[in-house]
Each structure stands twice: as structure tokens, then as C-alpha cells.
Design a protein that fits this description.
The protein has a single domain, classed as Glutaredoxin. It is of the alpha/beta class and 221 residues long. Strands 5-4-3-8-9 form a 5-stranded mixed sheet. The chain has a two-stranded antiparallel sheet with strand order 1-2. It has a two-stranded antiparallel ribbon with strand order 6-7. The protein is built from 10 helices and 9 strands.
Length: 221
Amino acid sequence: MSEDSLNTQFAALHAQRVATMNPEDLGVNIRQRQYLVDHADRSRFLKPGDIVPAFTLPEVDGGTVVLDELLARGPVVLIFFRFAGCPACNIALPYYQRELYPALAARGASLVAISPQTPEKLREIRIRHQLPFPVASDKNNALARHFGITFTANEESQAHSRAKGVDLGEITGTGTWELPMPAAIVIGPDRIAQFVSVSPDWLLRAEAREILAALPVTVSA
């Protein structure tokens, strides 16, 4: 991994947590991530070659994201993330802003970030990082469920958070603990998935170079 890679930044985040985080909190986090790695049903994940359904999602600034309208201009890259306050997501989205978005724009491709969080709560991450690409709300995780990439935190994680006065359903505005696993999906002509990377461990995610390499070859640089 290069110094600028996303996963190098995640490794640094984890190292910082090991050095500074309450051991009990750290253990719950590590066990939850490992549980997802061990138990995620990968047979349900969207796969390259699958057809992506047409969709329209509300964008946090009041507009809409319509897949077919974006595809009329070129390939579409979807980045699923958890919620606006997620520390790893606040590393990932600025990384994709720097390392992915300019190259996609130069090739006529679109980038959309998607979370189940309600638009009024989700908007803060776009403002915080001045993201130039759409940030959309996937109500009830409908699209993420179709892609087979949702999960619900295990009992230990939920109990630990609630004991600290943290309720994820309140944070997201959804009333549930269901979230998408971080994912990067490249969609080409005819709504065909060209590339799918799903990350049960949210501290491992697709690098920009992997996503760019998956763009349809018919797109000129």
C-alpha cells in the first residue's frame, strides 16, 4: 500500500486506537468487525455481470439521484458508507474526493456516495468535507438490501453502545441498527455491474486505482 492509500490511512487509524482507546471499547470494535468478516453471506453480494435496478434516491441538498440519467452521461460509481459520524467514513469520502473523483470526472463518469442515514442528518458530511459529488440517502436500506450488503450490529456491540447512551437508530434517523457494509460498485452500460467490492471489515475498502481500473474500456480518458 502506498502512503496515500486508503487502507494505509485505516491502518494508521487502527494503530492510533490501539494506543489510545479504552481496551474494552477497542475489543468490542475489533470483535464486531471480525464477526462480520467471518459471517457475512458473500453469496448474497451483488456480483460483476449482475443487472443493477433503476433507482432514484433523494440527495442531501434537496435534489434527486437518478441512475439512468447519470448513465446517459457515462459510467457510475457508487460508494456505500455507514453514516455521517462514522470515523472511517470521514477518512474514506475525502480520500475518494481527492484520489477518485477528479479522474472519474475527466472520463465522463459519475461518483455518488450513499448511506441509509436520513438526508437532514447525512448532509453534515457533505458540508464538512465540501464534497463535490452527490451524497444520497438510501431509505430503509432498500438499495443496499437488494445488493445483499446490509448488516445489523451484533448483540455485544448494541449492548455496549446503549450502555454508553448511544443508539445508532437515533444517530442515523432510521430507528434501526441496520447499515450497509462499505462497498464500491462500478455500473456500466445497460446497468451492468462492472466491478463490486464489498468490505465486511469497514477498515478495509477499495482503493481508487482498483475502481478506476474497472471503468468500461469504451470510456476515453
